[in-house]
Amino acid sequence: MAQKPSIPKGTRDFSPIEMVRRSYIINTIKEIFKLYGYQQIETPAIENLSTLLGKYGDEGDKLLYKIRSNKSLFSQLGTEKERHIRKVYNFWLPQKSEMALRFDLTVPFARYVVQHRNDITFPFKRYQIQPVWRADRPQKGRYREFFQCDVDVIGSHSLLNEVELIQIINDVFNKLQINNVIKINNRKVLYGIAEYIGETEKFTEITVAIDKLDKIGIEKVKEELSVCGLSKKAIDRLQQILNFKGTNEEKIIFLDKMLENTETGKNGMDEIKAVFGYLNMLSIFSKMEFDLTLARGLDYYTGAIIEVIAKDVRIGSICGGGRYDDLTGVFGLPDVSGVGVSFGADRIYDVMMEKNLFPEETLSTTQVLFINFGKEEEKYCLHQVGKLRAAGINTEIFPEAAKLKKQLNYANNKKIPFVVLVGENEMKENVLTVKDMNSGQQTKMTINELKFRM
Predict the structure, then answer these.
(1) What does pTM read for this prediction?
(2) Do residues 25 and 349 lie in contact, with contact meaning Cβ atoms separated by under 8 Å?
């Protein structure tokens, strides 16, 4: 009995119509990246395990897809007895992981910067659109293989970079017509909060727990923090901060006063105020939310943290990122600050499907289909098809003289908006009969008139 074909959970096949829609998203994002002066790079799907381990925290390290070596136990043994044991028992070494599929695009980017530093002009503005892999539990909006569209600038401490990235976020989601809120926080503010509650030694545990707040709720977060050793007094003070409601201005005033005696926290608040000041000038302020609960539990963030949520769709973040001041340091190039954000193409796709946001033109890759009535018509049509293609119009000719109904069904199934019918009279008059598949209307026109209409 033949094995039933399947794919691993958390992965997907994409049909032609899905690929057209995905390309629409990716091309929209790519064009806006280029508009701001970012250049494209690519890195390998697999990285050395040492490159990835320890960059994402304990939780992230558990989600790495490790690639195991296939070296055998006796591959280096050469005696006749050893070869006999290997042959009879087929006994292999426990496999050792030396590489892993990339978890994100930021750490490979940091590795790339260090490895190619002599060829790079700093500040280096790059974008990268490739798949990443996470050994996660599949659920709505969470996949094991998915595309990220990353944009980063490295080699500059300027807060103008954060502002520019938020402008890019705003432009992308305006273009895609996704109603969204852009959340921002700062790791320095979070550290200042840890200092304020007297628990700086537990800073990592605090940020990891806060990062789960939306998923597990405040009571579970408090339980995790208690298990980690935080005192009840510290947890209560933290809850008071996380529960604070108000406008962005009210939150800034609240935290500014609270953290005025914490050096790191005060620096973080100065950065928050500076970014909001720029965004107010650019009329993006109304889309922003200063979210005191935003932590993003990745260990390499050091400053601004950014996350974008689609309104009216329960799917998690559709874009996120932040500032990392020394990610290149672990690869031998210290004190090179960077900041970037990553657009989740797959979640954006799901949001656009749920809200019916794809334009009609993304439903088809072919704009014109020539109906095939026979060998003489084929010869005439091939010449006309070539003219349309030369003009940049996606055009097909049906490959055989099948029944008209079959050819029209083909056009309907592929959402082709126009079909061209050429018979003996059309060839004599050197015209085309063009059928609008949406209205059903047929019009005679020349090839140049059809080009102009398209």
Answers:
(1) 0.85
(2) yes
Cα–Cα distance between 285 and 245 in angstroms, integer?
Answer: 18
Terminal-to-terminal C-alpha distance of the chain: 51
Rounded Cα–Cα distance for residues 289 and 307 (Å)? 10
Of 47, 44, 55, 32, the closest CA to residue 127 belongs to: 32
Q: What is the DSSP letter of 416?
A: -
Identify which of 185, 175, 173, 167 has the alpha carbon closest to the alpha carbon of residue 313: 173
Other C-beta atoms lying within 10 Å of the C-beta of residue 285? 14
- CATH (one of 3.40.1480.10, 3.40.50.800, 3.20.20.70, 3.30.499.10) for 364-453: 3.40.50.800
pLDDT tens, residue by residue, 259-284: 999 999 999 999 999 999 999 999 88
Q: Could you identify the residue written with the tokens 């590489």?
A: 99
96-131 pLDDT per residue, tens:
668 999 999 999 999 999 999 999 999 999 999 999
Rounded Cα–Cα distance for residues 419 and 436 (Å): 7
- The token duo for 241 is 């901060």
